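User: Some background: our group keeps a shared notebook of sequences we're curious about, and every so often someone picks one and asks for a predicted structure to add to the entry. Today it's my turn. The entry only has the sequence so far, pasted here. Could you supply the structure so I can complete it?
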Amino acid sequence: MTMKPQIADSLFPDWTVPAQPDWIKGVSGGERYALLNRWSYMVGPIRQAEMDGLPQLGPIIAVMGQRPEKIRAKLGRAVWRKIHHATLATNGTRAVLWWRWQDRLDWADLVEIKPCHLRKINRECRGRYWTDGAWYAGRMAPATAGGWRWLRDIYEDSRHMGVRVNPRWSLARLQKEHDAAGRREAAARHSPAKWAVPYRFEADGFHFERLISDQDMGMEGHAMRHCVAGFARQARSGKLLIFRITGAQRATVSLTAAGHVHDLKSYANGRVSFDCKQAVQKLIQAVKADRLTT
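Assistant: Of course. Here's the predicted structure to add to the notebook entry:
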């Protein structure tokens, strides 16, 4: 043991090194030291909150640099209630996010983010500027694996396609506007020239319509979130007959020239029902009877 620790131990025998708060441990670089300084500066009010049975207020006190009563007066009763009833881990992540983007993120917006998405946002947006899409997805995304990123991407993709997104839109409205913009873009990107004869068929509540242009293929791929557009060259050459399925179930089916099922998928490459498979077999019989090849 060196002399300095010996002197410190003799002068302050009851003193121990302060434990670093868990909510700061995951932060790195200059942000970590800045947050530690804020926490050290406000350690008195933080300790008082802990003795009062409110340890979850510690991170908020640290980053805002004020006592609880002043924070409550500044933020308002509604926001304070959500902070007061949150866990220490939730408020810790909120504090880091607010510290990082306090010039663009209000507490009223921050407390609307679902706690299950806070850590994901903290990791994903660490090296990026805060975006409306990140906040929207934090509020609206389902609590599932990948839910936040999926909705954030839809929001940002909509803006890139020229949609004037309102952050207060419902999830259904955003998806509707995104799909409409995607259809417009797909229609503009692919040729509407028809390279095959139209064909329609109906069986057991399922409606089949043949896709006969690059535009049809592109819009079907966008609507159904699968790669049917990649079969356009085979469809143009007559090697595949591709149909849009509506009615009892939404799906897409491609048939070989010999009358076999090449691919049959619902939305996002999902499976189809048994009834749909039976209706496809009736479609195959009709195609063979009509000798549809081109």
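Suggested note for the entry: The chain has three domains: 16-111, 129-189, 200-290. The mean pLDDT is 87.
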